[in-house]
Design a protein that fits this description.
The chain is 0% helix and 46% strand. The protein contains no helices and 11 strands. It is an all-beta fold and 127 residues long. Strands 2, 4, 5, 6, 9, 10 and 11 form a 7-stranded mixed β-sheet that branches. Strands 1-3-8-7 form a 4-stranded antiparallel β-sheet, with no helix packed on it.
């Protein structure tokens, strides 16, 4: 069974940077497109960014474009979310998710398109 484990969440100040990691167990990582979502208290889970399984096509929510970068290392079975210039509005529980797909370059932005989820890692941005 594939498992996703996030790490890297922390409490930081506005303007700081963080890098989240999502390590996928097993040998199926390269078959998954990966995505990052977040959920703040009282709000719905929202798409942050995603990356295709093979060609590294990426997509981002408008709120994070230019500040966040999604990447992956298939040899390490790990996806990353680099977050720069963080603001209090970025405070949330961040989840990584995997979408098993035959497509080399599709990126998925909707939660129902992802079959496997991690437990989440907390990011708090406060002065």
């Amino acid at each position: 069974q594939v498992q996703l484990i996030e790490s890297g969440g922390d409490s930081v100040q506005p303007g700081d940077s963080l890098r989240l990691s999502c390590t996928v167990s097993g040998r199926m990582f390269s078959r998954y497109a990966m995505g990052w979502f977040r959920q703040a208290p009282g709000k719905q889970r929202e798409f942050v960014g995603g990356i295709s399984k093979k060609t590294n096509v990426t997509s981002y929510a408008d709120s994070v474009k230019g500040r966040f970068t999604v990447s992956r290392d298939n040899a390490e079975s790990t996806a990353y979310l680099q977050m720069n210039n963080l603001t209090p509005e970025d405070t949330a529980l961040y989840y990584c998710a995997g979408a098993l797909t035959y497509s080399a370059d599709d990126v998925y932005t909707l939660p129902y398109e992802y079959s496997t989820w991690g437990q989440g890692t907390q990011v708090t941005v406060s002065s």
